[in-house]
């Protein structure tokens, strides 16, 4: 699977923020982490020139580089970055690098500038008006990244794709969402993602609009759509939440949920249940099972805003959950 299919840890949708930049003369730094794709309109001039949907610094007349620091909305292991120079043609930076750091608490911009930074992407060549993808092999957990451009110019978006690694000190391991992206769960497979990514299904917070959920194409056969999820760690599910919010004429008619444990054998937690459009459904689990994976089946197709699997970690799951965090600290 391409690293670009992993969630964008820096996205504003997940709580990311651009906390500092040394320059943003032509275009605001906050544009770097917008969830939406960049757009461009010709002859849209402000008092500083053409308006760009990105981060753009002034032309340098001295030695140096420009930098921006981003707090990751979901701290984790970075699998790859995309430096998107969309619509920047004669004003894109020829090179860029990315560093990471892991900082406790809530540091100020000044404290972050002085932090210990580790190179995750060395100085690399960029192309203009292009999504420039770069794989990252570092396996440590980072809370912030710093983008450096050489020497100046414009970047439309910075995508930081990876795997979230939750801090267990801030979670109740006896009651948590085992399928939550921010807790370390991830999508293992999906039948269809025509309209939107299945990562949305397990994203933090409620969906604000239909586009922030998972939606499949219309089926013209006798099958059904599904998503398979690797849980944050081995646990026992007690409550299932199926949220069809915002899906009104395109919600699934029915859904079921199954889980598999370490042995790989599947058990049904929720038999095929009728769903209502634009509704948050809650189902108690009558016969809990130890689980490491879960599968949501929707019948026959449609859109789901969120899937939540509330439960507790087993003893082995708790050990794995904590060690995954400890082993990835810089």
Automatic annotation (TrEMBL):
Which terms in the Gene Ontology molecular function aspect does this entry carry? allantoicase activity
Q: In which pathway does it act?
A: Nitrogen metabolism; (S)-allantoin degradation; (S)-ureidoglycolate from allantoate (aminidohydrolase route): step 1/1
Similarity remark = Belongs to the allantoicase family.
Q: Pfam family of this protein, just one?
A: Allantoicase
- Keywords for this protein: Hydrolase, Purine metabolism
Allantoicase domain location: 15-164, 184-313
EC number of the protein: 3.5.3.4
Q: Which reaction does it catalyse?
A: allantoate + H2O = (S)-ureidoglycolate + urea
Report which superkingdom the organism of origin falls in.
Bacteria
Gene3D superfamilies per the UniProt record, alphabetical: Galactose-binding domain-like (2.60.120.260)
> Which NCBIfam families does this one have?
allantoicase
Q: Which organism is it from?
A: Kibdelosporangium banguiense
- Name listed for the protein in its UniProt record: Probable allantoicase
